[in-house]
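Human: I hope this is not a bother. Would you mind checking the protein record under this note? Thank you for your patience.
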Amino acid sequence: MRRLLAVTTLLVFVLVIMIPALVVRLEVVGPASQRGATMHRGEDVPIHVYIPELDKIVTMNLEDYIKGVVAAEMPAEFELEALKAQAVAARTYAVKNMVAFGGPGLAEHAGADVSVDYKQNQAWLSETQLKAKWGPFGYERYWGKISSAVDKTRGQILSYSGEPINAVFHSTSGEHTASAKEVWGFDYPYLQSVACTWDKQSPRYSDKKEIALMEIEQRLGPDTGVMVAAQSGSGAVAGIIDHTGSGRVDKVRIGSKTLSGLTVRDKLELRSANFTIEQKGDKLVFQTTGYGHGVGLCQYGANGMAKEGRNYINILTHYYTGVAIKNIFGS
């Protein structure tokens, strides 16, 4: 009888006290947003990722997500130190947007931190997509390399005045990166124009594009008067007026209209706003240098620096002015 009473008492203790306490403990350590921005090194940090093809928000581990971003955004053949630099930049970009760290999340999809649509945030590829991209043997080789780059920088982000930076990046800068101010009109102290002499091996370093005058008028609008200027024979149809501090086109005259270099790049789908113009008969020939908006980390430049023996910290502190590296795990 005493044994039965003891067993009953123990059962009541477990049901009434221990299990509720365990539930409360699980709730307390649950969502990262309830714990602030500093995690413990052993913890998994969840990120909520919107995948347009599925029209679904998928929750995954932040470090696993970063591996998929690095695999999608940078060639896996690159040097390990370049991949590590990309991992830190990608993690910083994600953390800055994550609600758990005070970020805005994805306005278009409540509950999501980021989207895998590269036009909105960063590109990301799943295991299935990477196996299709690299093949089974390439997957084994490259996935291990990318995992190493992410694991060796676990939790590391770039900060300025203690806050995560807007860690934008691009493919190929061409001599100089661009400042955020000249591209987007607002200034960041850590997104300034810096020299880049390491990206000349990029297959996207230079490009030539010929566009018929009629097509240019269609793309830029009839009010540019491209065809009228061409038929008048009064002079060149187009000419560059001035350049930005990084050497990109600031203002350009096409027909009778003055446009920004960024507008021309966008409307004519040029690789960069660093271009020259030459008229050949009924066409304009655009010679571009670089690929992308040109702000922040230059990926091919990072690889060039790594080949010269620079480590990922050297790379990141060159392209992002005045930044520090901090760890979201507090170490």
